[in-house]
Amino acid sequence: MHLSAERRLSVAWVVVVTITLIYLVIDGSVDDSDVMRASTVASVAAIGLALIKVRIVMREFMDVRYAPRILRTVTDALVLTMGVFLFGTYLVGRAIA
Amino acid sequence: MTAVDGLADDAAVGGDDAARRFPGDPDMWIFVVVESLVFTSYFCIYLYARTQHEQAFLAAQSALTMWVGILETILLLTSSWAIARCVQCTRAGSYAAARQFAFVTAGLGAAFFALKIAEWVHLIRDGYSFGSSDFMQHFFFLTGIHAAHLVIGFVALGVLVYELSDPRRRSHKTIETCSTYWHTVDLFWVVIFAMLYVVR
ipTM score of the complex? Predict the structure, then answer.
């Protein structure tokens, strides 16, 4: 299916806003009324969803999708690097706490 | 090439990399990558600190209101959509529409900034400040440095509108570069929001 550039942007916007609203579900499923509770699953999901949004914004809003291969590769490597360091720091920190 | 955006799309160019070009100035993309790595370094320090003092971070984090963060995020994501539409209209030669989308972007950015200031004021009135806890130190530093980037983003939007206003000055590359900066402000907020409001 080939979407027009305008429609493609709108679809991307709906996707990133929907992902943002998923945070409300995560928030509601972890906490007991007003008491915040630690959750590795919620934290990993929060970081993962943020990185998915970062990639969508880069690809669709920032036109990386239409850019030369080097920019597409560098931005994907950037998101991957962020993921490795963020997940790694959080999980290693939890393990040695 | 697509008629609307003026950039080569996947179906049109296939594997022909030469038919593709950088959106905006390549130097801005170097800035995006370097700034992203700097922010990532800070996020790692924050994440490590909160894993070592989990209960203290959770107690301070409970002062934040999730829906405020959600609303701020949606405002900035929508502003990113608007500036992307501005660039599309510019490439299509619809400069009046492009200017309108630029003003929509600025309005959404201003709404984000106003909400952020209201959030700061509310927290400070409730007794929270930069030095009240480790979490609040990270919160005020990250949201403050992001706000500084946002203010620079308004300057970029001013340059963009200035370019669009006069046919003799309409540089598509400059407009794309300003747009890329604004998206970067959005990108940083997407991760800052997850770190401060959602991570447990």
Answer: 0.94
